[in-house]
Specification:
Elements: E1 8-11, H1 13-16, H2 22-34, E2 44-46, H3 75-83, E3 87-93, H4 109-119, E4 123-127, H5 137-149, E5 156-159, H6 167-170, E6 178-180, E7 187-188, H7 189-197, E8 211-213, E9 228-231, H8 234-246, E10 251-253, H9 262-268, H10 271-277, E11 286-287, E12 296-300, E13 306-311, E14 318-323, E15 336-341, E16 347-350, E17 353-358, E18 363-371
Parallel strand pairs: 1-2, 1-10, 2-3, 3-4, 4-5, 5-6, 6-8, 7-9
Antiparallel strand pairs: 11-12, 12-13, 13-18, 14-17, 15-16, 15-18
Helix pairs in contact: 4-5, 8-9, 8-10
This protein binds beta-D-galactopyranose.
Length: 373
């Protein structure tokens, strides 16, 4: 399995924490379909931590789904999710316990991968808590990578070691298809800003096959749910979504899609932002200025277009300016650019320089086309 573009889906953790159940997953899958998010590309429905019993099966050694939360087990749920045209994800941990202290996969990697395959699981989020000191992180992920590669089913391997222990330097040797390049997200502006600013030096590690995962989206949480803090304004959520999309992060929804507002649905299904995220060339984004707190990111897209994002993390207005030469174009003989704002649909022609003052927490995400002068 080769992951050519960032995975899109939903995960239970941000809103529901340990309150996962068969019913929640079914209803969420149904809501992804009825809201149009499935058609927009969101495919994976991921059960995070706390789905298993506290003890493995004493005979088979297998993880056992919690009988209260998942009375029929995982297989019928996977069948149901597949019947809706979606895929099912599950969670485990490279250590002896998961972060919420359920059994982890350490020393049971092959047993667990085999069970996940048999249950029809399509995605494994693999955490990093309670790891034994004698085994370095890269070997823990190699173990599960080998188990998944031999389990007889295509299972997307989502590594979640939060960038610890220099994950970036070894993660592509493990078979992981995405890797958490951040600590945990919280539903606040400060958290979004912090994670975003940590990405500045990590883009050289971001590539098809294994994408930098900036953590699940908090769009639409509005301060409620497991990681809910202060919440954000709609404009801040749009900035968050735009930046995650432009930096080719997996887009994993974290709000309750069964009850999301129309405003949230519209943010999550912005087709032009999603097209940038899913651009088939999947080239690395590059930053053309040197201010992590007001970055200007550019990405060359398939077919010759550019994606350009300006993000103001400051609490006051800020002036953004750049020359098209900073993007790798000559100002003398190259073409002009037609910038299209992916949120307002407005277009403007840019000849040599771009200049704009953005308000506190303001942003722009453009798709730019080259035009003859
Ligand atoms: C954290 C992880 C979160 C969530 C949680 C579950 O380590 O970063 O995304 O999975 O564990 O306990």
């Amino acid at each position: 399995m080769i992951q050519k573009t960032p995975p899109l889906g939903w995960n239970s953790w941000n809103t529901f924490g340990c309150e996962v159940s068969d019913q929640l997953i079914r209803e969420t899958a149904e809501a992804l379909v009825s809201s149009g998010l499935k058609d927009a590309g969101y495919t994976y429905v991921v059960i995070d931590d706390c789905w298993a019993q506290k003890e493995r099966d004493p005979v088979t050694g297998r993880l056992v789904p919690d009988g209260k939360k998942f009375p029929e087990g995982i297989r019928p749920l996977a069948d149901y999710v597949h019947g809706l045209g979606l895929k099912l994800g599950i969670y485990s941990c490279a250590g002896e316990f998961t972060c919420a202290q359920y059994p982890g996969s350490y020393d049971y990697e092959f047993v667990d991968a085999e069970a996940f395959a048999e249950w029809g699981v399509d995605f494994l989020k693999y955490d990093y808590c309670f790891r034994p000191r004698e085994t370095p992180g890269h070997l823990l992920y190699k173990r599960m990578g080998a188990a998944l590669a031999n389990c007889g089913r295509d299972i997307l391997f989502s590594a979640c070691s939060w960038g610890a222990d220099d994950t970036k330097n070894w993660i592509k040797t493990t078979g992981a298809h995405m890797w958490r390049s951040t600590g945990d997200i919280w539903d606040s502006w400060e958290s979004i800003k912090k994670l975003a600013m940590q990405q500045t030096d990590l883009q050289e590690y971001n590539a098809p096959g294994c994408f930098n995962d900036m953590d699940m989206l908090v769009v639409g949480m509005n301060g409620s749910g497991h990681v809910g803090l202060t919440g954000c304004t709609a404009e801040e959520y749009r900035l968050h979504f735009s930046l995650w999309a432009l930096l080719a992060s997996p887009l994993i929804i974290g709000c309750d899609v069964r009850s999301m507002t129309e405003e949230t649905r519209a943010i999550l299904s912005n087709r032009e932002a999603l097209a940038i995220n899913q651009d088939p060339a999947a080239r690395q984004p590059f930053m053309i200025n040197s201010h992590a707190d007001r970055p200007i990111w550019v990405r060359q897209l398939d077919g010759g277009d550019y994606a350009i994002g300006l993000f103001n993390f400051l609490d006051n207005e800020s002036r953004f300016h750049f020359s098209i030469a900073d993007m790798g174009l000559s100002r003398v003989c190259d073409r002009q650019l037609e910038f299209r704002d992916v949120w307002s649909g407005e277009t403007r022609l840019v000849k040599g320089f771009y200049c704009e003052t953005l308000p506190a927490h303001g942003f722009r995400l453009f798709r730019a086309k080259l035009r003859s002068l």
